[in-house]
Design goal:
Blueprint (H helix, E strand, L loop, with lengths): L13 E5 L2 H9 L6 E7 L2 E8 L3 E8 L5 E4 L22 E5 H8 L34 H4 L4 E6 L6 E7 L2 E7 L17 E8 H11 L4 E8 L6 E7 L2 E7 L6 E6 L3 E6 H5 L2 H6 L2 E7 L4 E8 L5 E8 L6 H22 L1
Antiparallel strand pairs: 1-5, 1-7, 2-3, 2-6, 3-4, 4-18, 7-8, 8-9, 10-14, 10-16, 11-12, 11-15, 12-13, 16-17, 17-18
Length: about 350
């Protein structure tokens, strides 16, 4: 990785200011299933990515629109030494690894995690909270007290720490996180030219379904999409039994539903459950699955100020077993039988 800044020159290559550490915490908290995160800085924003055993990946992109100020000074493209007629070589984007756990701990120093950031953040059994309309600032909120807080981020270059400065009510906290060379794991590929299923639905329906299925303590989640009824089926089985949740086709449940033929894959249940925070926080989720079984769950999150951010999860499926293939053959035979009966 090429040097992006000379240490000690006093000019950071990246600095940004956010008026709310809470929204940064909420978005990054969605991918906390891994203790470390790879950070990439560009002129468009910050990209945080985590992965687990090369079978699950979580990505959060903090768009520059989330910050009140955003400055990124990247090196200019250098002309090639051999051939002056070639286009200039684009410099490497700043990329490094930090402790995600330490970053989240820093962002919630002033109670960002305790603030009600979404309609799902407080329990319905909270007797005190139930008397307060959700998402409305109360007499002790930061807005009422005039203590909105400021979060400053900066990065000076290779080998330098990732700096976070939090200011609230006259109290300033500075945290410098060590940065490390990225491991450069390969991104889980989603073949956009071979998408077999595309579904858009409200995220809370998915959250309720996963919560219902988790009661059986399952190890595997089977996702099946049909071109006809029952359309979308989520099935799980465990030591305590089995359960299935089916979604009918209709804009009140499935806003977008595109399936050419039956598509079924199996995933580790804990990996899907790891996206629960994104399910609670998001308003919508987009399901996409390719012919290899790679699943993309992209969550649309509405943040303070009316901006929209996206949290993306990609999962690698289990290897299909012979029993699963037999079940699929039985389904296809039943479909052919029904078609023949209709023709007769």
């Amino acid at each position: 990785m090429s040097a992006l800044a000379e240490p000690g020159n006093g000019a950071p290559i990246f600095k940004a200011v956010s008026s709310s550490a809470r929204q940064l915490f909420q978005l990054l908290n969605c991918i906390r299933f891994s203790p470390k995160a790879q950070v990439q800085i560009s002129n468009e924003g910050l990209r945080f990515s985590v992965e687990e055993s090369r079978v699950m990946q979580g990505i959060v992109f903090l768009d520059k629109a989330l910050f009140t100020t955003f400055n990124c000074t990247l090196p200019e493209a250098e002309p090639p030494e051999d051939d002056q007629d070639q286009d200039p070589v684009a410099p490497d984007l700043p990329i490094f690894t930090i402790s995600l756990a330490a970053l989240l701990e820093t962002l919630q120093i002033f109670g960002a995690a305790d603030a009600a950031g979404s309609r799902f953040s407080k329990s319905d059994n909270d007797g005190y909270g139930s008397n307060i309309r959700r998402d409305r600032p109360n007499a002790f909120s930061n807005q009422a007290l005039g203590a909105a807080g400021i979060c400053r981020l900066s990065y000076y270059g290779v080998g330098e720490p990732f700096s976070i400065i939090l200011e609230e009510s006259g109290v300033t906290t500075t945290c410098n996180l060590n940065t490390y060379e990225p491991e450069s794991p390969e991104e889980i590929p989603l073949d956009r030219s071979a998408i077999q299923v595309k579904i858009i639905m409200q995220a809370r329906w998915l959250f309720d379904a996963v919560a219902e299925l988790s009661s059986t303590s399952p190890s595997r989640l089977d996702i099946t999409a049909f071109p006809s009824a029952p359309y979308l089926s989520l099935s799980a089985s465990g030591h305590l039994g089995s359960a299935t949740v089916e979604f009918s086709k209709g804009r009140e449940l499935l806003e977008t539903f595109t399936v050419a033929e039956k598509w079924t894959q199996s995933y580790k249940f804990d990996m899907v459950k790891a996206a629960a925070d994104a399910m609670r926080l998001a308003s919508k989720v987009s399901f996409r699955g390719d012919e290899q079984g790679v699943l993309s769950m992209q969550f649309m999150v509405e943040v303070e100020g009316g901006s929209i951010s996206f949290v993306d999860f990609r999962l690698v499926p289990f290897i299909r077993e012979e029993d699963d293939e037999d079940d699929e053959d039985e389904y296809e035979e039943s479909q052919e039988s029904e078609s023949n009966q209709d023709q007769n």
